[in-house]
Design goal:
About 5% of the residues have low confidence. By secondary structure, the protein is mainly alpha-helical. The protein contains eight helices and four strands, in the order αααααααββββα.
């Protein structure tokens, strides 16, 4: 069966349901991995009283809406981040399926298109987890970046792009560039790290999936967008991140990690992982269009 034989609406529907369902798992990973907890056991439970969550209350997106953002067992407030992550997972899966299934080259087998869609959805899900963990904890869990990097390299020969050579070069060069210059080199010169090791491992993952061009794009686009955000924060006088020592997440007081994975802009500490992830998603979903637009501006 060919990818072109499947109706677009059916692809969208299946992708949305699949992405939302896995978005629920992303929420579990975002909550548990920084706390050193298993994502398998115990089953999903209320963060307030520990009561297991009933299946009908755990339906992605709709469960939070039906409960009006409060746990049915004890009334504990449930962060709107949960349905937001599930919705983002659904939208990303639809966007990826549109590119790799709906717009597949004529004659592409549905099985091959589906496998590529699933692989890139795993990549996008890893970026989503890394983003929200970095925003909350200023660190990126190895449970995300290292397995995803391995998957990107192993699957490179079987994906249409970027090819094994580009994936290997992109992963290795991106990791070493950040690790040597912004982690070890900066620490040797300034006495503190300019970026965290989590950022270099995240770029290892990005390079493994997107190749050296995607890794370079992510660094440049992420840096530019990070600087815009930092400039906005400086002008408005807002903090880029609250003091970790005073931050409460899901009702728990959390402590600062010993070596937060954050870039420094002046005296501001800026989690760089979300901007790297944003740049990677931009390249994955619209890289060619963005680059064509940019080079078109230069030629005017």
């Amino acid at each position: 069966m060919l990818a072109g034989d499947v109706a677009r609406w059916f692809v969208w529907l299946m992708a949305f349901a699949w992405g939302a369902a896995w978005g629920s798992f992303f929420n579990v990973a975002i909550y548990r991995w920084p706390r050193g907890m298993s994502v398998v056991t115990p089953p999903s439970h209320c963060p307030g009283c520990g009561t297991p969550i009933r299946a009908w209350n755990n339906v992605p997106i709709l469960g939070w809406l039906f409960l009006r953002g409060k746990a049915s067992c004890c009334g504990t407030s449930i962060s709107p981040r949960y349905p937001m992550v599930e919705l983002l997972g659904a939208v990303l899966c639809v966007a990826i399926a549109e590119l790799w299934v709906v717009r597949a080259e004529p004659g592409t087998l549905l099985l091959h298109a589906t496998i590529e869609t699933l692989l890139y959805f795993v990549f996008a899900g890893g970026l989503l987890i890394a983003t929200f963990v970095d925003l909350d904890w200023m660190e990126i869990p190895d449970e995300v970046s290292l397995p995803c990097a391995a998957l990107g390299l192993v699957s490179a020969p079987f994906r249409t792009e970027p090819g094994l050579w580009s994936a290997a070069v992109g992963a290795g060069a991106a990791y070493l560039f950040v690790q040597l210059i912004f982690v070890w080199g900066y620490e040797r010169i300034a006495g503190r790290r300019g970026m965290g090791e989590g950022d270099s491992k995240l770029l290892l993952m990005i390079g493994a999936f997107l190749g050296w061009k995607g890794a370079l794009f992510s660094v440049v686009a992420g840096s530019l967008q990070g600087l815009v955000f930092a400039g906005f924060a400086l002008v408005t006088g807002r903090k880029l991140t609250p003091d970790i020592e005073e931050r409460v997440i899901d009702g728990e007081l959390i402590e600062a990690p010993e070596e937060p994975d954050a870039s420094r802009v002046g005296v501001l500490k800026l989690p760089f992982g979300p901007f790297l992830a944003l740049g990677a998603l931009e390249y994955l979903l619209a890289g060619d269009a963005i680059l064509s637009w940019y080079f078109g501006l230069l030629q005017r």
